[in-house]
Amino acid sequence: MTKKIIFMGLLSFVCSLLGCNAQTGMFKSVEVEEFHTVIADSTTLLLDVRTPEEYAEGHIGNAMNIDVLNGNFLAEALKSLPKEKTIALYCRSGRRSKKAATILAKNGYSVVELNSGYLGWTKASSIPLNKF
User: Fold this and answer.
1) Which residues contact 126 (CB under 8 A, 6 or more apart)?
2) Would you identify the CATH topology of the domain 23-123?
3) Which of 78, 100, 73 is nearest to 89 (CA)?
4) Which run of H or of E encompasses 112?
5) 127 contacts 33 by C-beta, under 8 angstroms
6) Which domain of life does the protein's organism represent (predicted)?
7) If exposure means fewest CB atoms within 10 Å of the residue's CB, which of 34, 93, 95, 101 is most exposed?
8) Are 101 and 113 in contact (CB under 8 A)?
9) 91 catalytic per annotation
10) What is the reported pLDDT for 15?
11) How far is Cα 72 from Cα 76, in angstroms, rounded to an integer?
């Protein structure tokens, strides 16, 4: 009986930890191949949430740029991004994009985030890049 209680307690603990991941069900985090499919849809807007300097060094396709670390990120997003479109976003490695995805999802946007970021995208050599 004690083993069963301990097991159930551990199981509950693990389930609660797994439930507290970066996505929290508010947005979808995907790998490069699926992200490529998502951004191919004309109803999706592509958003780079890195700094303008990082964006200038190279970015994906026709991505617009709103820096998530800038204090006016949400105001800029609300002004520039229509809520009826899916927002596909990325950063350098996936950390800042999860932050941005959470902010946007909490404000009514449908969001897909590139889990591996621009670094993952550039490693997938079969996908074309835009460097300006």
Assistant:
1) none
2) Oxidized Rhodanese; domain 1 (3.40.250)
3) 100
4) strand 110-114
5) no
6) Bacteria
7) 95
8) yes
9) yes
10) 38
11) 6
Question: For 9, phi and psi rounded to 5 degrees?
Answer: -65, -45
**Residue reference for tokens 């998530």:** 68
Token reading at 114: 């590139």
Burial 25-45 (b: 16+ CB within 10 A, else e): eebbbbebeebbebbeeeebb
* Residue keyed to tokens 């849809």: 41
Phi, psi of 129 (to 5 degrees): -120, 155
pTM here?
A: 0.77
Which pair of tokens denotes residue 16?
């609660």
For 98, list phi and psi in degrees, rounded to 5: -65, -40
Q: Dihedrals φ, ψ of 109, to 5°? A: -90, 150
Strand partners, 112: 28, 88
Alpha helices in 1-132 (DSSP H): 2-19, 32-40, 52-57, 73-80, 95-106, 117-123
Q: What are the residue ranges spanned by the domains of the chain?
A: 23-123
Task: Give the pLDDT score at 130.
Answer: 57
